[in-house]
Amino acid sequence: MSNQSNYPCPICGADNMCTDFTDGFKWGRAYCNSCDCAGPEVRTGYEESLDAPWRTEARKQFADVANEYANKLLAEDNNVPCKPSDRCGCGGKAILTDYTVEGALKQYSVACETCFIGLPYGFDTPDDAWAAWRRAMGTPSGAIGPDAGEMDPNGDEGARE
């Protein structure tokens, strides 16, 4: 039985976020099997089940801490903040994060702070990350492309009214 979740790591974006106990069965935390980053410890209530509420809380706190730190760095860099219209399908707020591997270029991603769905890191600019997020969210029908009455750069006609 695995404790790995389908939630992406808020640091590297890999789908390897796990939860485990850290001090007997009293404390636990979320961590990533890919980049070895971990979130803060939370009380487990001594629950060992894979669907125990503390596991969700640990993933949430891991994302909250990573996002708080990333937002602080982004504010210092004067990057573009999230617009109120940039919402996830779950209704949660989308936030921009960045990640820098030592000796490499800074890369950006956008993720939902409510359900943790997000894009992998790899976008060179905040604008590129936001554009990809908006394309991924698409319209309610999932259609991606120009609106009615618009023309795509390749000459394709937009959606029909």
Describe the structure in your own words.
The chain is of the alpha+beta class. It contains 2 helices and 5 strands. The protein has helices at residues 53-76, 126-137, and strands at residues 17-23, 27-32, 42-43, 94-100, 106-112. Strand 1 (17-23) and strand 2 form a beta hairpin. The longest helix has 24 residues, at 53-76. It starts with 16 loop residues before the first strand and ends in a 24-residue tail after the last helix.
Oligomer: single chain
Order of helices and strands: EEEHEEH
Category by helix and strand content: alpha+beta
Strand order, largest beta sheet: 1-2-3
Rg, rounded, reads 18 Å
In this structure, how is the largest beta sheet organized?
3 strands, antiparallel
Q: What is the residue-mean pLDDT, rounded to a whole number?
A: 74
Q: What is the total domain count?
A: 1
Number of helices: 2
Number of strands: 5
Strand content: 15-25%
Low-pLDDT segments: 77-82, 139-143
Helix fraction, binned, reads 10-25%
Query: What is the approximate shape?
Result: elongated
| Cα-to-Cα separation, first versus last residue | 50 Å
